TrEMBL record:
It is found in: Nucleus. PANTHER family: WRKY TRANSCRIPTION FACTOR 21-RELATED. Residues 61-83, 115-161 are annotated as: Disordered. SMART domains: WRKY (SM00774). This is WRKY domain-containing protein. The keyword DNA-binding applies. The lineage of its organism: Eukaryota, Viridiplantae, Streptophyta, Embryophyta, Tracheophyta.
DNA sequence: AAGATTTGACCGGG
DNA sequence: CCCGGTCAAATCTT
């Protein structure tokens, strides 16, 4: 169990590395950004290492007092969080604290909820994605009955709309990532809009009945800006067995880096007791459900590795870059706490044949 | 093969 | 009836 959490931390680190790897061609001429990303990675792995130490401590403690209650209590407290802050909000919090410009060119965040946060109940009872469990569809003949589908609309509850700047480098068709993985289920031309609107739902809707959805629409007047509307809240990370771990600063920042260039030093996540940010206390409190964006390329950023949206089924190709990544991580660990020890030559020459894979970059 | 995306059709609300 | 949202079969990707 505890090992699993730690492995999630490690996997997050790996993921950051993978992302850095994928974006390296773009970052070649932005050493400061690159350096920053390296710091994120270092922090991620450092946190993982702390987690490891923590496990060892707890294990020893558990062995000494056979009751095991302390461990149990710790676990309970760590799974006691509600919802992880969506990355957007994390960024805002973080940047607010830092007195820096907002992550994305967030012009506004408006809540259009009719007061109800009931996303969970209604969605479950009415079986949102229609298809799977329709009472009406289960005629024993297997043939769909006359009333073909049952759809639900309305009662979506809260809608949150934000505008997000698209990356001007790389594939601008892909709205910026957030910590969640989304699956596109529709696209529609909208009257009066030049660009179609994309409809996304949480990838883990099936597993966790997660009602979270979002719509992504490019603005007519500024194709580099997306308007993202979120509906419903993520419930998919509520699994008691494995809380997702959206490492606040690191994950948020690397996402951000790819989106907008800025130079900033994140709050050293390593200085935050891992137990506390595991329990999400570090993040403040609950978050509304979401953020982000999906991408047609399916390259969703998946945080953590365990619990919910952020994780159990990381769509990332899993096996592809595991070894290079591990090597890289190793190098970084051994090189101390600063990324400055890594020479650009190492990154751009000794392994340059690997960067070819980025066919969708730029 | 499983999962994601595409896309035309369907449905409900205004 | 129109429009926005969703479904689901076909297709693509991994």
């Amino acid at each position: 169990m505890e090992e699993r959490m730690t492995s999630q931390l490690f996997q997050h680190g790996f993921k950051l590395v993978r992302e850095l790897e994928a974006n390296l061609p773009n970052l070649a001429d932005q050493p400061n950004v690159l350096s920053k990303s390296c710091d994120e990675i270092l922090n991620a792995f450092r946190s993982a290492k702390e987690g490891l130490n923590l496990h060892m401590m707890f294990r020893q403690q558990q062995e000494s007092d056979q009751t095991g209650t302390s461990l149990e209590g710790w676990r309970r407290s760590t799974s006691n969080y509600t919802q992880p802050k969506p990355i957007m909000e994390l960024l805002q919090m973080q940047l607010q604290a830092d007195h820096r410009s907002p992550p994305f060119s967030r012009s506004d965040v408006l809540f259009a909820g009719e007061g109800g946060r009931e996303a969970e109940g209604s969605a479950r009872s009415k079986s949102i994605g229609g298809g799977e469990l329709h009472p009406m569809d289960v005629s024993d003949s297997g043939v769909v009955s006359s009333s073909q589908r049952q759809r639900r609309r309305k009662d979506d509850g809260e809608r949150r709309t934000i505008t997000v700047a698209a990356p001007r480098i790389g594939n601008t068709d892909i709205p910026p990532e957030d910590g969640y993985t989304w699956r596109k289920y529709g696209q529609k031309e909208i009257l009066g809009s030049k660009f179609p609107r994309g409809y996304y739902r949480c990838t883990h809707q099936r597993l966790y009945h997660c009602p979270a959805k979002k719509q992504v629409q490019r603005l007519d007047d500024d194709p580099y800006t997306f308007e993202v509307t979120y509906r419903g809240e993520h419930t998919c990370h509520m699994s008691s067995t494995a809380p997702s771990i959206p490492p606040p600063a690191a994950a948020a920042d690397i996402t951000h880096e790819m989106t907008q260039i800025r130079t900033t030093q994140p709050p050293p996540s390593s200085s935050v007791p891992i137990s506390s940010w595991l329990s999400m206390e570090y993040l403040g409190m609950r978050g509304g459900g979401s953020s982000g964006s999906a991408s047609s390329s399916g390259s969703g950023i998946v945080l953590g590795g365990g619990g919910g949206c952020a994780g159990p089924s990381a769509p990332r190709t899993g096996k592809d870059a595991e070894f290079p990544v591990a090597d890289m991580a190793d190098v970084m660990f051994n090189s101390g706490s600063s990324s400055s020890n890594i020479s650009m030559d190492f990154l751009f020459h000794s392994t340059d044949d690997k960067w070819e894979t980025g066919d969708k970059q730029i």
